[in-house]
TrEMBL record:
Domain Anoctamin transmembrane as annotated: residue spans: 195-418
Alphabetically ordered keywords of this record: Membrane, Transmembrane, Transmembrane helix
Keyword Protein biosynthesis: no
This protein's name: Anoctamin
GO cellular component: plasma membrane
Family: Belongs to the anoctamin family.
GO molecular function, one term: chloride channel activity
Topology versus the membrane: Multi-pass membrane protein
Sequence intervals crossing the membrane: 212-232, 238-256, 309-332, 352-372, 395-419
Subcellular location: Membrane
Amino acid sequence: MVESWSFLDTAESNFRPLVVIELAKGTKEETIEWFTKRIVDKKANGGAQLLIKPLVMENGVENIYLVGASHLRLLLGAETVGLVKECSDNSMRAFTYSSRKTFKHFADDNHDFLTMAECQYIIKHELENLRAKDEKMIPGYPQAKLYPGKSIVRRLLTSGILVQIFPLHDREELKKLCHSWYGRVKIGYQPLDDIRCYFGETIALYFGFLEYFTFALIPMAVIGIPYYMFAWEDYDKYVMFATFNLLWSTVILEVWKRICAILTYRWGTLLMKRQFEEPRPGFHGVLGINPVTGREEPVYSSIKRQLRIYLVSLPFVCLCLYFSLYVMMIYFDLEQWALDYHKENESNFSSLMLYVPSIIYAVVIEIMNRIYRYAAEFLTSWENHRLESSYQNHLILKVLVFNFLNCFASLFYIAFVLFDMKLLRQ
């Protein structure tokens, strides 16, 4: 970046609120003054260099604050987070403020160059990366300890001082989106580009997949109508239908991969520079200099992280998997007891008892999934991953393995163990 952050003026007459910060009621004045000062302070002083204004309620309470940024600040923030934009030669490149004139649709007075979702993402990123410099605690709250490199927003959240941070709606833009999305009588495709501009790429991809999958189900629905209407005794026809299902599911997934790549490339998320990804808010460590970017950020030993993963997290996951299998065997024992009880009594009550083990097991599965999800989030956060992508990958792996075994192990047990035992007995 050729320009220095020092030339950026945070004062702007046309203040556009983008993000809302809600502090706890009764937050001390010195805490509010310190936090708001860090938000508006210059980057060189460890601040976010944003704009903030209190939202005065009817009762006079000022615990809600609106956060925005000048157009220039947002452009510099776009370079910091590595947003990819389309250039005049139709190529996609990471945005840099020094070469801003080479990007398509850019103009100094064009405030729509960055979408609303991108502006809110930049502000959220800057707030989450506010880190303590030489503070030992949050002013006014000695119990809320700080150390160099600790995320200020995360400490405020865990201490209950900061209630929540969320993006703000733009009613005029939302009305336009509602009209083009579902307010029209004419049936058509969803305005995915407009959804992406307002809600972001993640939400747009979600609705894009729903639209694609809905249309992809039409061939299967048409072919499946005869199978639903007529009960054929020739089971070869059902084998053909099952084979077509298998081929169809493979094809639609491959086609979706292509469509997804087209959308993400057009929106600039496919080429975002992950190697320069900023540390996630929950990452903590001693302040140091990143040898790649040259920026000051927390540093944590990868050896310590690996020790936590393999000596604590991995044994815990294995223990949970064993406990899940143990609960499954208890369920089969209960089911066998219910069958024996029904054979002995042959009553309405015994008939109802046949469903009790399945109901109990279904409830236990849901409870175990929720408890394990909480434990997995705690462990993954405790592992102290530097990047958000790494954090999500480890969390998904933990949750996916347990949920798959916890929810579907009984099916495999019935298919490959009980069924084989039954055949051997015959």
